[in-house]
Amino acid sequence: MTDNTIDRSAADRRGTIVIIVGTAVSAMSVLVYEAIAGRSLGAEGFAPIGVLWTIGFMVFTVLMLPVEQFITRLLVLAGGAAGAVAARSRLIVLVLGGAVVVGVAFAWLSVDQFFAGNPTWVWIVLTIMITRAALASARGFLAGRRRFAAYGAAVAMEGLTLVVLAAGAALADLGATSYGWAMAVAPLTVFVLRPFRPAAWSGPVHSEGVSASAFLGWLLVATASAQLVLAGGPIVVGLIGGSSAAVSVFFVTFTLFRGPITSAYNLVARVLPDFTAMAAQGRTAELHRWAWRLLTGGLALAALSAAAAGILGADIVGAIYGSEFTPTSLVAALGGAGVGAGLAVLFVQQIYVAAGSTRSLAAGWLAALAIAAGAIAFTAASDPVLRVAVGFAAGEIAALLILGLGVALGRR
User: I need a labelling partner for 385 at 20 to 30 A (CA). Which of 13, 89, 310, 365 fits?
Assistant: First the structure.
């Protein structure tokens, strides 16, 4: 083991700690932001913020996070050389530009249904899409060059900025749109860390092993399916007849519960480089062992989370957001089960990304999405919130079983 390897390992350990701390800060910041906005605006007034957050979250995770992971993988395989990303810049710009168009188009087409016809929300969405596209690229460079401490700092800074701006909006009573502008500005703090500056780290160079367009294309299909299961619930509640208050109840409950998954997107940036190195070096036995651990641990976590959420979840939501946001205990239990499984499957799917097996990843998530949709359609309940909660839990557990067994049994 060389001195450089020892130094890098020590730096990686420090970076991992910073990512964990930054993730905790971010998770608490989001919770505080939503509590401030929810208590300031009430259930009806908060509805546009819930939809805005859902749009931003889904577009980021479906279209932008894959670009972040794509950039991360490219840089790991190329030993940190920026030329690997420059060679794929047209594809990256195409996907990120498409993400901006999709987000703005949804806001424009739904401005009457979700935003009371106020065109300001469309401009807010446009700004959010641009700043978060920049954030995805910046975080890809930080993770791909193993600047994990900077990555963790970026996560914390964005969250803290969001809270400061939300507190100012509440104190000045600026209205709902001010909370949207806070979401648009916060991602820009990443540039304080100079994410695109040349990096000293250089690792071994490996072949990509898969067409860039095929890799990213199937990854987009996989993440779209995954995020429809994970984050599409508030919109589905509205589409199947739920009131604005029901949309708000589902949003705050499941946003709170899926906090560990949302936060774990930051930890993915820490494990993906190592999984990529394992796959490139042919260490498949290690990847299979990781899959077994994640599968069994995820099923156990789903059961424990369901029990804990069923007992405590509704009271916690009510205490944080107010009694008008409180879900039923059954809805809370289903949310806990889905989050437990979803947290594990998030890390399982990084093995597919690392190995370039995004087509298999997409197939697994499409199957899970079909199961979730079937659960919503055939659940014998009139409450839209309960029906969508059943679909969420069914989809996440199915994804864990399908994808986890796919790697653990060597079938990916």
Answer: 365
Q: Write out pLDDT tens, residues 216-249.
A: 999 999 999 998 898 788 888 888 888 888 888 8
CA 178, 182, 184, 188 dihedral sign is positive
What type of residue sits at position 205?
Answer: V
Helix, strand counts (H, E) of the chain: 17, 0
Contact 42, 177 (CB under 8 A): no
241: exposed, middle or buried (C-beta count within 10 Å: 0-12, 13-18, 19+)? exposed
pTM: 0.82
Q: At which of 205, 222, 249 does a domain end? A: 205
Q: Within this chain, do residues 228 and 313 fall inside the same structural domain, yes or no?
A: yes
Supply the pLDDT for residue 123: 94
167, exposed or middle or buried, with CB in 10 Å at 0-12, 13-18, 19+? middle
Q: How far apart are CA 339 and CA 400, in angstroms?
A: 11
- List C-alpha distances in Å: 315 to 234, 257, 303: 20, 13, 19
Torsion, Cα of 110, 177, 389, 315 (10° steps): -160
Q: Which of 205, 222, 247 is the last residue of a domain?
A: 205
CA–centroid distance for 18 within its chain? 19
